[in-house]
Amino acid sequence: MQFIKKEQIKAFIKIILSITLLFSCKYPWKKVLAETPWQPTNLTKEHISSIETTPYGIFAGEFSTKYWELPFNGIYFSSDKGMNWVKSGLKYRGVTDIAHTKDIVFATTYYSTTQYPAGLYKSTNWGKDWSHVGPDTPASKVEVLGDTVLLGTYNQGLWISNDLGKSWKRILEGEERMQYIDKIFMDEAIIFVRGHNEYRNFLSSKDNGITWEREEWLEILDAFDFWVYDNLLYIATDYLNIVVSKDFKTIYRLVGNFDSNPVHSLYRIGVNFYAGVLNEASNVLDIYKSTDQGINWESTNLTEAVNTDSLEDIQSITGVPSYIFGLFPGKGVYRKEISFKRDKEPFLGNLWKNQKPNDILNKITSFFDHEYPLLGYGFYSEPSEYTSSTVNFLGQKGKEPEIYYSSHNGYDFALPYGTELTAPYDGIAKGVYCPACGNTILIKHPNGYMTVYMHLQKENLIAQMWEDNIPVNEGDVIGKVGMTGNTTGPHLHFEVRKPDYTIPGWGTGHPSGLTDPFGWQNDFKYDPWAFFKWEDGLGRHTGKASKYLWKEETNLSGIKKAFNGNPLLMDLDNINIQIPSTIYPLPLAFQIAYLTPPTPPESTQKYVEGTALSIV
């Protein structure tokens, strides 16, 4: 009776929520050409069962029951991103799964001999030697997080070790006990286990495997796979595409709209989400990619490379280039070069006279804050816990004085007093003044953008206060760097906006129009401002995705490409940094600190142009 009831509930939910999907998803799955095609690696053997990517290379396991064919049934290893493979131990063992943490690799095996029992094996030297740990029983799955290892077996249920395999305990006794484990998902927030007795069951633990709870809603959804990102749980399901949950208990929203086709796998690398989707009409599987947290999807055109109806696993390796790997039962391992979307709309030229290459980076003293760029906005303020931190366009988050400064809605450039400022693009100029921003020029450009220049000298402005409709051409001098308004020294405060003129009383000045001219240069974090939504006395608003708007290509693009086997070389004015190519697998971050701008002179003082001196 329980089985019939579940089927009835599933049928009802499928009808109701499929209708919801139809009307709530503005854009269905999209078919577009992938940037690079999927390619077979040199491991297209029929019985590859598992893959695991590590900083050292890629491990793959083979599990064939055709013993009369004398299969290797062990571990393969590739150090060149899947193009060449060598045999790396556990021969004839029948490898069913692989996982790793730190410098330890774990592999589960099915077959046992008098000398080598079945179960879990551990290597501390990247596959050169293997030792048996845990129970002596055929093992199906292994996952590891920190020092905790979960081991799934074929007939002895679930086992746990909290010391990386030194000691073990069988868990899930009584009604919770499951004999065969075929899915383990581990995250710092939650653990999910799928197993079988008479029926397929799901259990979860939020205390690292100490206590467990039955998850009947996942059984009703026919969950296949999980992913946790930004405190949201993404669930690949049989008929509701991808379910998103806030509380890890109930449905928050649905994403994907793959026409109720089953989603078999989920994976994320950086800002790219991947989903393996089976087209039930053609019985062919494809892998789709989303760059906006699952709202829109595009095909990676897997079907042009391999015809398959199932997907065992998705993995990735980062580097130059980065690759995503797919393991397809009966087909082996395929790979595809990963591309990260970075929008550009280059139209901005130089901001000041005699601007040198890369000056636009070298002169920054304060960044656009991608978390809450709400400086001066009186209707909504950033939460108190964020008031001392800033997120810049590289995705770096820091407190003052590491990164300046929280809620900043533009860029501050350290320039000598009196530096001539130039229009970076054609447009119509307007002059304004406010106590905080001082003498200000706004230029409305024909492409819908507006640029803003604050703290200028009163003299030589292209448009005086409230003077409007002054045509400017790119390169025209629009004013000089000054110290008017709220400033601690001579500098240019520069903003870029793409205004919403429909907002009453604000138009050009509402923060929803703010954008970062450097775009968003982090492939592994989402831009918080692009996805930020809020409601205030003026209505509901959203932040804005930023595009790279400079005509000049800064050295940042060079840094992204510098690790292709060559030494990294950066020239930043009088700073020269060289890094050997041998360390390229390591994550690197650069910080450049500038001296504090000079203290503003009193009214009795005279500033000496081009210096940091004031004379009484």
From TrEMBL:
It holds the Pfam family Peptidase_M23. Coiled coil: none annotated. Residues 407-498 form the M23ase beta-sheet core domain. GO terms for molecular function: metalloendopeptidase activity. PANTHER family: MUREIN HYDROLASE ACTIVATOR ENVC, PEPTIDASE-RELATED. This is M23ase beta-sheet core domain-containing protein.
